[in-house]
Specification:
The strands form two sheets. This protein has a six-stranded mixed beta sheet. The protein contains one helix and eight strands, in the order βββββββαβ. About 5% of the residues lie in helices and about 45% in strands. By secondary structure, the protein is mainly β.
């Protein structure tokens, strides 16, 4: 079954998609720095990330300075929620859109 999942690559790309396994989001040559699940809160204009990948673990946000997101998410706040705590990704990282 497919679920809305994301991965963070060593090059700072945040890849999202409906996939069975997190590895299905990898492209050749990618190194994965963790992943999890995503949801979009259109009312708040938030891209909400949470959880961890069973294969790659929790995202290692501290290993990247700039995060690259598809332009479809421009204008949204990106938040990673874990253990009842919100980590404001857009507030702590530069964001590039492609």
């Amino acid at each position: 079954m497919e679920y809305p999942k994301f991965i963070l690559t060593a090059d700072g790309f945040l890849r999202l998609g409906l996939v069975t396994l997190h590895r299905h989001l990898l492209e050749p040559g990618d190194t994965c720095l963790g992943g999890g699940y995503y949801d979009i809160d259109y009312r708040r204009m938030e891209l909400v990330l949470s959880g961890a990948s069973g294969d790659y673990g929790t995202p290692q946000w501290h290993r990247v300075d700039t995060i690259s997101l598809p332009v479809a998410y421009h204008g949204m706040t990106v938040v990673y929620r874990t253990g009842g705590y919100d980590c404001p990704i857009t507030g702590e990282h530069r964001i590039n859109y492609y």
